Amino acid sequence: MTGTLDDDLDKSLSGDEPELGGDNRPVPRITTGREPVLGGAALRQHLLDLLVSGDLEVQQRALFALAVRQDVRAVDGLLELLAGDDEFLRGWAARALGQIGDRRAVDPLIAALSDPSLWVRQGVTAALAELKDPRAVGPLISTLGADDRYIYSLGALAAIGEPAVEALIEALDNPNTRVRLGAANALGEIGDVRAVGPLIRLLNDRSGHVRREAAKSLRRIGTPHALAAAEVWQQQSAGHVKPTRIQPPD
Asked: What is the reported pLDDT for 10?
């Protein structure tokens, strides 16, 4: 049986042709979480032993192997990597923390939204989408104004869902056009009827892009008032009726 656990560890961490990151460094295999657990409890204990091996590369590989298995015992080590100097490892640590789902990671991930690396920021946003913690709502809304994170933050807010609705409604009044646009989009994805009145008012926004997004979101929500307001906006935009200020029902 000599070497069996090490062989299993190698198989769980890398294939014959490892996927490469943007800087040609092997990507830790943490993306599926559905591969069979090789070695069962014995391998899991072996991975834990490797965390104190003294070999930094071995420790990192063991952390990511535990993350694949959603083992919370990897969290402390991954948080250390998230705060470390290696951009590559910070990004993968963020993604692994999202995969594990431990709430201890929420505040460090929120802090990492300002990481100087786009790779890391995208990983952090993806992790917050997995965790769906309301504490991330405000910080995520604040990132909607950034071109490089708009789509990622939008997806995370939609994933958080109902707890994000009130803050997103407030964001419809944000002076940043991109924030208003993202908030309208996310509210449509969530589909909460509380957003109908605020989205109807947004049909009068100074930005045509925002007005269009508000109409799309109203159609997604699909209540009678929402659909009627979206239709009035459509008719006005097409020049079929005289433009007037569109108001939500009393």
From this structure: 46
pLDDT for residue 45 is more than 90: no
Residue 132's pLDDT is what? 96
State the helix-helix crossing angle for 75-82 and 56-68, rounded to 10 degrees: 120
Q: The whole model's pTM is what?
A: 0.76
What residues does 20 pair with on adjacent strands?
26
Q: Check pLDDT > 80 for residue 27.
A: no
Four-residue CA torsion sign, 176, 138, 157, 225: negative
Which structural domains are found in the chain, ordered by start? 1-131 (1.25.10.10), 133-250 (1.25.10.10)
CA nearest to 170, candidates 206, 148, 146, 201: 201
User: How many Å apart are CA 130 and CA 60, to the nearest integer?
Assistant: 22
Dihedral over Cα of 140, 141, 146, 147: its sign: positive
